[in-house]
């Protein structure tokens, strides 16, 4: 991705191309109800913030406006306006096109932080979002749907949300029948995603999101693999001194673009939360109220882990082998944490099959797998700041070498963290364009579900053999009586 940058057009990191920024009112400029009233605010915009997320239903953002031209008087903003602009990194063919030429301008939905600065001037923030996010709030899906999940998603996206944007879908297994009881379109798609299984992969659960190319419905595993092998990274981030000259005496723009200004390890693990949420193990209990039957299905993280692709792999492009976030160790009584499913109980009624039917993957099998896979990515989260680049999207794979907090030595000659370093999925992107400083930067949130170097195995019982076995149990009232007796005796002595 970064290697495709035309360095003849990008002479310095942080550069950006920003076309005219215009506000378009629902009012007509000529009274014909055909031509919207438009006003340019390019010279008034101080900053643009643009957000992408795998967890969000669309792209959104805001612009900070220093208004000395009374725009709000000439073009009253009521929350039904559009904003159009184009943003791209010079030398990059990929960028954001929110122009009326494409038919996909962003829509203003809020004004905030409005305050005067000087006489005749004020500053405020205009918030905008994708049209689809507004359509979602005005529409309900209320019908029976039959077919593959990917076809149902296409139907909702085109018929209910009425979007004309590009939509890339991953094929799913099985024929389903779902009754949608007046659900908002995005909620309906979430319901479908929770019961979907990708055609070419063993993982469960799908994700619906928007990036600069349009909307996408795909599995996490598709982000990690391609044609049966690990997907290559599109960026190799690292922290090092900037403006280091190469052999030619010139700055390497490609490497400079991938040099990190700062980073932070946001999350590394949360065993208590993972146990509570069923990441390591869970028990699914299904019941049929009509037939008065029930069944149980146990989920084991260590058993499921080797069957799917992960951020790390075996070095040959294949699946990960024994590099999970859960170390292999004897927790208690020759049992691992993943052998204890009773910690998390999930109850599902199969009575819904009276209305919702399917051929292929069953929801009671999909649910614990999908939940564990998604939540496992939240155990290793890194945020980093880098120079802005519109060629990067959420869902892309990148690598980052996390510096070790120790001098390089024999045990760690590369000076990097062996567990936190490696391959990551880009979960969130925040583009920040400062027209005042003429600079484009971005904040990335990266996630991973595996470690590069396997954790050491441990066969010792880490719990039962190390605890104090001489603990006692007391009754509170007896303890209170003891305290009273002691206090009384002390009073007798002092008297």
Walk me through the structure:
- This protein has 495 residues and is an alpha+beta fold.
- It has a domain at 2-134: Trypsin-like serine proteases (Thrombin, subunit H), CATH 2.40.10.10.
- Helices cover 18% and strands 33% of the residues.
- It has ten helices and 26 strands.
- The protein has helices at 71-74, 131-137, 149-160, 185-194, 220-224, 253-257, 271-277, 301-304, 363-376, 476-494, and strands at 17-18, 22-28, 36-40, 45-53, 60-67, 82-88, 95-98, 106-116, 122-129, 141-147, 167-169, 175-183, 207-211, 214-218, 225-226, 229-230, 235-238, 262-267, 281-288, 293-300, 345-349, 357-359, 380-387, 397-401, 422-434, 439-448.
- The chain has a 15-stranded mixed beta sheet that branches. The chain has a three-stranded antiparallel beta sheet with strand order 10-12-22, with helices on one face.
- Strand 19 (281-288) and strand 20 (293-300) form a beta hairpin.
- Helix 3 (149-160) packs antiparallel against helix 4.
- The longest helix is centred in the C-terminal third of the chain and has 19 residues, at 476-494.
- The radius of gyration is 28 Å and the shape is globular.
- It starts with 16 loop residues before the first strand and ends with a helix.
- The mean pLDDT is 84.
């Amino acid at each position: 991705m970064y290697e495709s940058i035309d360095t003849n057009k990008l002479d310095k990191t942080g550069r950006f191309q920003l076309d005219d920024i215009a506000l378009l009112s629902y009012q007509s400029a000529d009274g014909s109800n055909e031509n919207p009233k438009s006003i340019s605010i390019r010279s008034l915009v101080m900053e643009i913030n643009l957000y992408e997320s795998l967890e969000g239903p669309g792209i959104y953002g805001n612009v900070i406006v220093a208004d000395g031209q009374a725009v709000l008087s000439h073009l009253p903003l009521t929350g039904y306006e559009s904003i159009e602009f184009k943003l791209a990194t010079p030398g990059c063919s990929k960028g954001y096109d929110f122009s009326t030429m494409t038919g996909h301008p962003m829509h203003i939905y809020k004004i905030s932080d409005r305050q005067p600065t000087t006489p005749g001037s004020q500053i405020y923030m205009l918030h905008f979002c994708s049209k689809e996010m507004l359509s979602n709030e005005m529409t309900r899906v209320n019908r029976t749907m039959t077919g593959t999940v990917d076809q149902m998603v296409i139907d909702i996206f085109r018929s209910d949300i009425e979007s004309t944007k590009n939509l890339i879908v991953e094929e799913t297994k099985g024929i389903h029948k779902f009754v949608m009881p007046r659900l908002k379109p995005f909620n309906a798609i979430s319901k479908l995603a929770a019961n979907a299984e990708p055609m070419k992969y063993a993982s469960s659960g799908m994700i619906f999101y928007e990036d600069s190319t349009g909307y996408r419905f795909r599995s996490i595993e598709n982000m990690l693999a391609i044609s049966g092998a690990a997907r290559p990274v599109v960026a190799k981030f690292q922290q090092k001194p900037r403006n280091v000259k190469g052999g030619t005496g010139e700055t390497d723009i490609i490497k400079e673009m991938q040099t990190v200004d700062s980073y932070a390890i946001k999350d590394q693990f949360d065993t208590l939360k993972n146990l509570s949420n069923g990441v390591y193990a869970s028990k699914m209990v299904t019941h049929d109220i009509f037939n008065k039957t029930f069944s149980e299905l146990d989920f084991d993280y260590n058993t499921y882990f080797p069957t799917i692709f992960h951020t790390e792999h075996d070095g040959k492009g294949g699946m990960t082998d024994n590099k999970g976030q859960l170390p292999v160790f004897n927790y208690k009584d020759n049992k691992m944490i993943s052998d204890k499913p009773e910690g998390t109980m999930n109850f599902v009624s199969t009575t819904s099959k009276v209305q919702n039917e399917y051929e292929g993957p069953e929801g009671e099998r999909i649910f614990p797998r999908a939940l564990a896979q998604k939540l496992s990515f939240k155990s290793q989260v890194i945020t980093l700041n880098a120079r802005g680049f519109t060629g990067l999207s959420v869902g892309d794979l990148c690598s980052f070498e996390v510096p070790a907090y120790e001098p390089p030595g024999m045990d760690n000659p590369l000076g990097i963290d062996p567990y936190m370093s490696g391959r990551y999925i880009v979960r969130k992107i925040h583009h920040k364009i400062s027209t005042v400083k003429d600079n484009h930067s971005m904040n990335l949130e990266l996630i991973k579900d595996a470690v590069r170097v396997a954790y050491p195995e441990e066969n010792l019982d880490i719990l039962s053999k190390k605890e104090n076995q001489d603990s006692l149990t007391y009754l509170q009232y007896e303890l209170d009586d003891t305290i009273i007796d002691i206090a009384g005796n002390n009073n007798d002595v002092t008297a």
